[in-house]
């Protein structure tokens, strides 16, 4: 049986609003393709290499937990940047997304250093951007989720798509997340993957491509995933 391995970074600190559900969705969608998904939890990064890793995942957390997690992740930031540049698929959520940039400015003006892997920053405000969110994406179609963040992120890179309901990266440009090579960063909790099988399959397919294993069949039954997505779409459009 073919296998893929996910490195799940800092699950002890970054697991807001059931971010762990993303791992469950990856495992389930891999199983539909007869691929076994191994998950390695990494809370201490000293000496970690990505030799066995096919996909990496970093969840979200409060400002405090984010700062602690970033300190730990900074030990491997050079390697993490290299694998991202090399096209390793990865998913980072909210706090995990914010800290890929150069800095995070808290609502009281304190500057917390980011991993500086990509050239962007996040500035937080006291009023939070919260609620259901719907995005239209050229790559993934309709994406739904739940957001709750004080941070406003600004960057020049590709995004997941245009926000039709909710906020996304900030409360100005109606764009959500980041899409750089095969790295996805997003404010969507909820968790994002169970309701958005296109995103889950994207990560798995890119991992299979890199590893040289098949990702078939292309057609699987998505009835339940589509129904879950529709609940959110209906909720925001009926408001
Ligand atoms: N601390 C960050 C913010 O509020 C991230 C929160 C989160 O991960 N949900 O912007």
Keywords:
6-stranded mixed beta sheet, binds glutamine, 239 residues, 29% helix, alpha/beta, EC 6.3.5.13
Order of secondary-structure elements: EHEEHHEHEEEEEEEEHHH
Biggest β-sheet strands, sense, barrel: 6 strands, mixed
3D shape: globular
Share of β-strand residues: 25-35%
Strand runs, count: 12
According to CATH, the homologous superfamily is Class I glutamine amidotransferase (GATase) domain
Distance between the amino and carboxyl termini: 47 Å
Structural class: alpha/beta
Briefly, what CATH class? Alpha Beta
Number of helices: 7
Spans where pLDDT lies below 50 across 5 or more residues: none
So, CATH architecture? 3-Layer(aba) Sandwich
Radius of gyration, in Å, reads 17 Å
User: What is the count of structural domains?
Assistant: 1
Under CATH, the topology is which?
Rossmann fold
| Quaternary structure | single chain
- What helical percentage do the residues reach? 25-40%
Distinct bound molecules = glutamine
Mean pLDDT metric: 96
Quick gist of this model?
By secondary structure, this protein is of the alpha/beta class.
Topology:
Blueprint: E1 2-9, H1 21-31, E2 35-42, E3 55-58, H2 63-73, H3 77-85, E4 90-93, H4 95-98, E5 103-105, E6 111-113, E7 121-137, E8 141-154, E9 161-165, E10 175-176, E11 178-180, E12 183-186, H5 192-195, H6 197-211, H7 223-237
Parallel strand pairs: 1-2, 1-3, 3-4, 4-12, 5-7
Antiparallel strand pairs: 5-6, 7-8, 7-9, 9-10, 11-12
């Amino acid at each position: 049986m073919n296998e893929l391995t996910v490195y799940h970074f800092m699950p002890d600190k970054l697991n807001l609003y059931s971010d762990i559900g993303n791992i469950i969705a990856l495992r389930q969608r891999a199983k539909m393709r007869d691929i076994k998904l191994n998950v390695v939890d990494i809370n201490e990064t000293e000496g970690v290499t990505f030799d066995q890793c096919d996909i990496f995942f970093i969840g979200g957390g409060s400002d405090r937990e984010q700062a602690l997690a970033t300190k730990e992740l900074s030990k491997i930031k050079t390697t993490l940047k290299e694998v991202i540049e090399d096209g390793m698929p990865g998913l980072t959520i909210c706090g995990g997304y914010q800290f890929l940039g150069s800095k995070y400015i808290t609502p009281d003006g304190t500057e917390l250093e980011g991993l500086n892997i990509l050239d962007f920053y996040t500035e937080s405000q006291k009023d939070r951007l919260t609620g259901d969110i719907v995005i239209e994406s050229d790559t993934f179609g309709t994406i739904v989720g739940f957001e709750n963040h004080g941070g406003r992120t600004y960057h020049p890179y590709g995004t997941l798509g245009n926000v039709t309901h909710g906020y996304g990266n900030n409360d100005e440009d109606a764009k959500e997340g980041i899409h750089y090579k095969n790295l996805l960063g997003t404010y969507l909790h909820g968790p994002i993957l169970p309701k958005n099988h296109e995103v889950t399959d994207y990560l798995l397919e890119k991992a299979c491509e890199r590893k040289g294993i098949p990702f078939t069949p292309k057609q699987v039954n998505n009835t339940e995933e589509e129904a879950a997505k529709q609940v959110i779409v209906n909720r925001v459009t009926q408001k």
